TrEMBL record:
Stated name of the protein: UMF1 family MFS transporter
Entry keywords, A to Z: Membrane, Transmembrane, Transmembrane helix, Transport
Entry's transmembrane regions: 76-95, 107-127, 133-152, 172-193, 205-225, 265-287, 299-319, 331-350, 356-378, 399-416, 422-440
Organism: Kribbella antiqua
The keyword Ribonucleoprotein belongs to this UniProt entry's keyword annotation: no
Keyword Transmembrane helix: yes
Domain of life: Bacteria
């Protein structure tokens, strides 16, 4: 079996359709969510607030007026992500409940993807002091990403048997990193050579944001064509009414009976904490590198490229580790590694490239593996008929929709005026997540959910 080929028990056509949606949305996650948009929106907000882009020598201390609240330009992007996730907490479970009752899951997934891609394309118009437009588009993009991933993650259960989910999930994440690496390489060339191309750096960044939207939208056609729809199974009966009313009824029933699956709930809470830490580290890394450590945009993109390249192999390696040591043990080892990363991040010296690149390698090793294995582990704990609904709750802590981590990071920065204490504060999320995960009995949880036991958990 090849390194990226489909496991024998998985339909090859659907395997490629599933894997290439990770490839598609990673253009948005990396170029927009991780590298370019947060520092760019910060610069746009600083221009609106102070008339210039803040620097270490001349920081911008004027707040933006947002609904009567004073918001630091440096914290704006993180607060937007926070609000998007709070809205997601109400919206995504309904999306999941609808998906579980729909016979056309892939259309729902792709519809959200194409809407988010359109929002990303419109980021090309964010310039000058138009921070309000940028904040709105970031909100829409993140909400649509989370909504599409609710449906996408549930499809893993449809296409892969229990013993193959770690492999399929890990390889899909690897495809995502490969796609993100390719698009970021192109964007690095454009941003680096903006003078030779006859454009400003701001224009080069906006064109890169446009490319991410086009990438996401165009490659989403592949899963739309290759995945096949299946009729709903084991759907919980609720009162009559239209699809939306039935979906609210199913959601209410799930929340009421969630205590029947204590291990599923415990895993979900653990994931909420440690994934908040992971997602916040990812989303703030470019701003931390630019504003705290003093690196130019080109260095930040090159570092993220390195992370993407290493993460491709890291995701595949974690899939192999899971087959040998078990999924839960491998995830816990990854969380210990994350704790060491945030401690090292606090101590990084400014304007020294080598330590910053070494940090990028460390993040790349552990990044994709912990997320891919968490997805496949959670899939084992979901009762049939509620896959998308449970993954909608799972998505509350998934990439690009963290809320508590970004809130803590933004508040600590606003209180202290420095990103260093903000980055080290994120270590608490990994500690709490690890403590909770240790208490999860995977075998018991799989049995309670009525699912087939895999050979190794």
């Amino acid at each position: 079996m090849g390194l990226l080929s489909a496991p024998a028990a998985v339909d090859k056509r659907e395997y490629w359709g599933f894997s290439l949606y990770d490839w598609a949305n990673s253009g948005y996650v990396t170029t927009v969510g991780t590298v370019l948009f947060a520092p760019y929106l910060t610069s746009v907000a600083e221009t609106a607030a102070c008339g210039y882009v803040g620097t270490t020598d001349k920081p911008c201390h004027t707040n933006l007026d947002v609904l009567g609240l004073g918001i630091s330009p440096g914290s704006l992007a993180f607060y937007v992500v926070t609000v998007a996730t709070l809205v997601s907490a109400l919206f995504l479970p309904v999306v999941g409940a609808i998906a579980d009752r729909m016979a056309r899951k892939k259309l729902l997934m792709c519809g959200f993807a194409w809407t988010g891609a359109l929002a990303a394309c419109c980021m090309v118009f964010v310039g000058g002091g138009r921070w309000e437009l940028g904040a709105l588009l970031l909100f829409i993009g993140n909400l649509c990403l989370g909504s599409s991933l609710v449906v996408y993650d549930s499809i893993l259960i449809d296409i892969a048997p229990p013993d193959d989910r770690d492999d399929v999930s890990s390889r899909a994440w690897a495809f995502g990193y490969l796609g993100g690496f390719i698009l970021l390489t192109v964007n690095l060339a454009v941003v680096t050579a903006h003078d030779a191309l006859g454009m400003s750096q701001g224009t080069a960044v906006r064109l890169s944001l446009l490319s991410a939207g086009l990438w996401w939208g165009a490659f989403t056609f592949i899963p739309y064509l290759k995945l096949r729809d299946r009729p709903p199974v084991s759907v919980v009966p609720v009162r009559s009414g239209n699809l939306v009313r039935q979906s609210f009824g199913q959601l209410a029933a799930t929340l009421k009976h969630m205590r029947t699956y204590p291990m599923t709930l415990l895993f979900l809470v653990a994931y909420l904490f440690f994934n908040d830490g992971i997602q916040t580290v990812i989303s703030v890394s470019s701003t931390y590198g630019e504003k705290q450590l003093g690196f130019e945009t080109q260095i930040l993109i090159a570092t993220i490229l390195l992370v993407q390249f290493v993460a491709f192999f890291g995701a595949l390696a974690f899939g192999r580790f899971a087959r040998r040591f078990g999924t839960k043990n491998t995830i816990m080892g990854g969380l210990v590694f994350w704790m060491l990363i945030v401690i090292a991040g606090f101590m990084l010296p400014a304007e020294q490239i080598a330590p910053f690149l070494a940090m990028g390698v460390a993040i790349g090793i552990v990044l994709g593996g912990t997320q891919a294995l968490s997805r496949s582990a959670f899939s084992q704990l979901i009762p049939k008929g509620r896959e998308a609904e449970y993954f909608s709750l799972y998505q509350a802590g998934e990439r690009g929709t963290s809320w508590l981590g970004t809130l803590v990071f933004g508040l600590v920065h606003q209180i202290t005026g420095s990103y260093r204490p903000a980055i080290v504060a994120l270590g608490l999320f990994f500690v709490i997540g690890l403590v909770l995960l240790v208490r999860v009995d995977m075998r018991r949880g799989i049995t309670e959910a009525g699912n087939t036991q895999p050979t190794l958990v």
